[in-house]
Amino acid sequence: MPEGHSVHRIARQFALHFVGKRAAVSSPQGRFAAGAERIDGLRMLSAKAVGKQMFLEFEHDRWLRVHLGLYGAWDFSGDFTADATTASASGRMGQTNQHGTVVGEHEDSLASIGAPRRTRLRMSEQEKASEEVADFPPEPIGAVRVRLLTGDTCADLRGPTACEVLTPDEVQVALNKLGPDPLVDDVGEAEERFVATVSKKQTAIGLLLMDQSVVSGIGNVYRAEILFRARLDPHTPGKLIPEELLRELWRDWAQLLKIGVSTGQMMTREGLTADEYAAALANRADRHWVYHREGLPCRVCGTNIVMELASARKLYWCPSCQAPLASYHQGG
Q1: Sign of the CA dihedral running 255, 256, 258, 259
Q2: Tens digit of pLDDT for each residue in 123-148?
């Protein structure tokens, strides 16, 4: 399932190439025909991501809410910038291509930034460029739930968990169900909300971080990596975690999310040389501390990484480094 950084990157594609333009909206598959008709021909006013959900605002108080879920993906084609992150953020995302983004085996990102080109880009949990598009708009590929088309750019959505047209009040209801997002909410208020929520819960922190009503955008990869970086046992009840450590968790998530948006990769290791960093961008196996490393030695202590199921999702952690909280209180 796409985690928060992927959805923010998709929203920035829409911000750069669709906002301010009228879009022809259709449902080639037919399942979204009524919804498409409600926003067909309207100008897109804004595009934003909150956690794993995206909200596209149109004229006449109509919004398109999309949750990609496990199988959803957007295909962009036509004249578009392969990586819209820098342009749509007014150049503030300084880490983009800092070391040269490499197309790798997983979570692929694109090295080319700048001149638009007629091609196709798949954006979901992974980002993959494909062949140049000879005819525009291209014929829909597969079961396209909704197509948004301007004069030069096309976006096709397939396989989402949710795709619906909402009123502003309905959008607010959806937003009220979501936890804070570091890239959307006021930094101070978001941190306070996260700390206050978690500190009241008896639920294990490994489950709380995946609860989108507690914090928006964290999935399996970020969950495992954030907990390892904090050296925190994933089974620790939220209410037993010291406030200082909760604040560290939140700030680390905010930092990792920014890196993910700017690079297109869930890069969670630090302290790498330039060569190691480039290798990590090219190969998912080198990007993480514990995720997907069950049975392999911990990069810090050598203990084999453990994988277990937590609410039917795979949880990776190091039994040695992620010690009980007693170690934290002792400064370990």
Answers
A1: positive
A2: 555 555 555 666 788 888 889 999 99
Task: Find the helix packing angle between 4-17 and 243-263, rounded to 10°.
Answer: 40
pLDDT tens digits, residue range 15-51? 999 999 999 999 999 999 999 999 999 999 999 999 9
60: left (phi over 0), alpha (psi -120 to 50) or beta: left
Contacting residues for 32 by C-beta, under 8 A, at least 6 apart = 145, 146, 163
What is the secondary structure of 200-212 as a DSSP string? T--SBHHHHTT-T
Sorted by sequence, the CB contacts under 8 Å of residue 91 that are 6+ apart come out as none
The whole-number average pLDDT for the span 218-223 is: 94
In 3D space, the residue among 129, 171, 156 whose CA is nearest the CA of residue 45 turns out to be 171
The C-alpha atoms of residue 71 and residue 34 are separated, in whole angstroms, by 22
Domain count across the chain: 2
What is the DSSP code (8-state) at residue 181?
-
How far apart are alpha carbons 318 and 298 in whole angstroms? 7
pLDDT at 119 over 70: no
Nearest to 3 by CA among 188, 265, 197, 292: 265
Prediction pTM value: 0.83
Same domain, 22 and 124: yes
pLDDT of residue 323: 83
- Note whether 100 and 14 are same-domain residues: yes
Helices within the chain (DSSP H only) = 4-17, 33-39, 85-88, 168-176, 187-198, 205-208, 220-229, 243-263, 274-282, 325-329
CA atoms of 77 and 178, how far apart (whole Å): 31
Q: Looking at the structure, do residues 138 and 198 belong to the same domain, yes or no? A: no
Q: Domain range holding 296?
A: 180-329
**Residue bearing the bigger pLDDT, 40 or 73:** 40
The pLDDT value recorded for residue 243 is: 97
163 in the same domain as 97: yes
Q: Which residues are catalytic?
A: 2-3, 52, 313
User: Parallel, antiparallel, or unpaired for β 306-310 and 313-317?
Assistant: antiparallel
Q: Within 10 Å of residue 186's Cβ, how many Cβ atoms?
A: 10
Whether a cis peptide bond, with omega within 30° of 0, leads into 137 is yes
